[in-house]
Specification:
168 residues, alpha+beta, Thiol Ester Dehydrase, Chain A, 37% strand, disordered N terminus
């Protein structure tokens, strides 16, 4: 059973600590935020907006949404049994090549936001994720992010068969 209780993040000095891979927990994961598995192609996580993520007006700075997307993308891969660290250890790096982001409404300090990540499309050459960030039932941000796989020299690589199977 997944707990509905969401807790504030107790931030360690390292904002994005390394976590053991590949593990998906059905209760609380990434820095004690609630995680819900929707399926192999879709994932949802709730995060609390921290003070350092907002500007002088108390609104989340637009650049922080990219960080939320990264959390969603990483947790989707982890929930489906994959691990970016394992890919990097094998010499395959996943990089963002395109972001199309629409800001509908602002998130504010201390808001509880839901990051929904969905696999939009996977081909041999790219992976496209669709995102929706919401507060309660209010849509705040939507985005499409395109990723490609490269080697350590920056040469494009085929999307690994394991990802094609997971997301295809």
């Amino acid at each position: 059973m997944i707990s509905r209780e969401t807790v504030y993040r107790d931030e360690p000095e390292d904002r994005f600590p390394m976590k053991p891979c590949p593990v998906w927990r059905s209760h609380v994961d990434w820095q004690q935020n609630e995680v819900r598995r929707i399926g192999m192609r879709e994932h949802e996580i709730e995060l609390r907006v921290r003070y350092d993520e907002v500007d002088a007006m108390g609104l989340v700075h637009h650049s922080n949404y990219l960080r939320y997307f990264e959390v969603g993308r990483t947790e989707l891969l982890r929930a489906s049994g994959g691990c970016y660290r394992d890919m990097e250890d094998s010499g395959q790096l996943v990089v963002v090549v395109h972001v199309d982001c629409r800001y509908h409404r602002p998130a504010r300090y201390d808001d509880l936001i839901r990051v929904r990540t969905r696999i939009e499309k996977v081909t041999a050459g790219k992976i496209i994720h669709a995102y929706e960030i919401a507060r309660a039932n209010e849509k705040l941000v939507t985005a499409l992010v395109t990723l490609v796989v490269i080697d350590r020299e920056g040469n494009p690589q085929r999307v690994p068969d394991a990802l094609l199977e997971q997301y295809g």
